Amino acid sequence: MKIDNLRGSIVAIVTPFKENGDIDFETYDSLIEWHIEQGTDGLVVCGTTGETPALSEDEDAMMIERTVKKVNGRIPVIAGTGSNSTKDCIKYSTTAKKAGVDALLVVAPYYNKPSDKGMYQHFSGVAKAVDLPIILYNVPGRTGSCISAKLAIRLANDHKNIVAVKEAGGSMSVFAELLANRPEGFKVYSGDDFLATSANLLGADGCISVIANLIPKDFHELMVSSLDGDVRKSKSLFFKYKALMEHMFAESNPLPVKTALALMGKVNETFRLPLCTMEDDTRKALENELKTLGLI
Question: Where is the protein situated, by its record's location annotation (predicted)?
Fold first, then answer.
């Protein structure tokens, strides 16, 4: 499925585990069906929210293959294939391509903190090696490195298959720079649920979302209304879920979203170390908000 026209709510889906720590593929299948029924526009597998750093390479490949087969072309499937090694990123991306994904989400190389020159060569190397649409992923709070708006636009102009950016730096000024200078057809997705509505009203294309795991129908409607410029409906939905968005980052993602799904009866409240269950106070506050919204 082509992602040329992909806009709206793209869920960064969680990876459910059984109580013994194994991947719960049956529950995962149910989550996919729920998202498709609720109107989610696209799906990212093996992203940050999917606890990818705790998955083995084989598990990562299994998750991607399972997702493609289960979705079966109904919505676009995007695989997170980033690495701080260009060689490994190409390997993971090639595996994902063989599995049949529609696009790749490639995070900025983390920990080794490359210069802009090194960052450019990294993404160029991946783009040349793997003939699939690539979404750049800028999340400096996690990676310790930054894909500047200027660099993202340069990469988009130089490589036809670098088609979008997921911007999660927390700055509206970066969105404004991207939207003012992007080449034709280049998509800008928010990686921040809280800023997505405002970014869409400026001309962005939707959100690769955490909170969509919990409210797929309403978050889809929030994205559609803001993309359509319906300020009244956008404001109503945004303020309804504002507090829940804030709870999603009361502790490190994906702890709150996965805890919320467990409270909703969708998954087990199981993480892989070093991630663990939430602190009692933040968990209780999240539970209270879910009750207020009628989600539990």
Answer: Cytoplasm
For the stretch 92-135, pLDDT in tens is 999 999 999 999 999 999 999 999 999 999 999 999 999 999 99
Look at residue 105 and give its three-state secondary structure. strand
Joined together, the tokens standing for residue 224 give 């559609």
208 marked as part of a ligand binding site = yes
Instruction: Tell me which of 166, 187, 189, 241 is the catalytic residue.
Output: 166
User: What is this structure's pTM?
Assistant: 0.96
Spacing of C-alpha 127 from chain mean position: 20
**Residues 263, 226 contacting (CB under 8 angstroms):** no
Please say if 137 is a catalytic residue: yes
Instruction: Give the pLDDT confidence of 63-75 residue by residue, as tens digits.
Output: 999 999 999 999 9
Contact in structure between 262 and 269 (CB atoms under 8 Å): yes
The catalytically annotated residue of 28, 137, 189, 241 is 137
Give the alpha-carbon dihedral of 24, 26, 32, 37, to 10 degrees: -140
Annotated active-site residue 111? The verdict is: no
